[in-house]
Amino acid sequence: MHSGYKAPLLRKLADKVAAAGYFVVVPDFLRGEPFVLQAGPNPLAGGPAWLAKHPPSEGVLDVKKVVEELQSEGKSSLGFAGFCWGGKLILETGKDHTFKAIVQLHPSFVEPSDYEEIKPAIAVLASPTDKAEISEPILGACNNIDTFVKVFPNVMHGWTCRYDENDPVAVADAEEAHKDMLDWYAKHLPVSVTAA
Description:
The protein is built from 6 helices and 4 strands, in the order αααβαββαβα. α4 links the parallel β1 and β2. α3 packs across α4. The N and C termini lie far apart (about 40 Å). This is Dienelactone hydrolase domain-containing protein. Pfam families: DLH.
């Protein structure tokens, strides 16, 4: 199954967001080296070595470059969606008001303290194994930002962009999360319609 920015279902989701009226960018923050689950009894073998080579802190510099480019093109109302590793990256870059809305989808590598200084409105969409419960007490105590945490009870990590398109239940679960993300953006990043 494909992962990283070339994953077909991620690209399909990007097209869905674009169809809702947003300008979408899908950068390769992993430089062509997404984590690949290993065959055998330990599918996460190699994870620590991969993470050491791809620390989210390095991705912060890449995000800043993308933001600068978008702003140079006149785009000022920005959102950010992060999947898995990107869920940590969102928290690293969400400590100022660069983004108006951020969405974590099946976040990984996050700690409770990562949520403490978040400035933009944040939605967390998680599977039961994604430790979303660590975000709820901290985000629940944030009176100055809008927050939304939803755990999808019958899904596995990665369900929003790595699912079997022939499985109607998997498709419905992914589409529900996609709708939640689009609703979050509509609430915090309304699309302006201009007459031609």
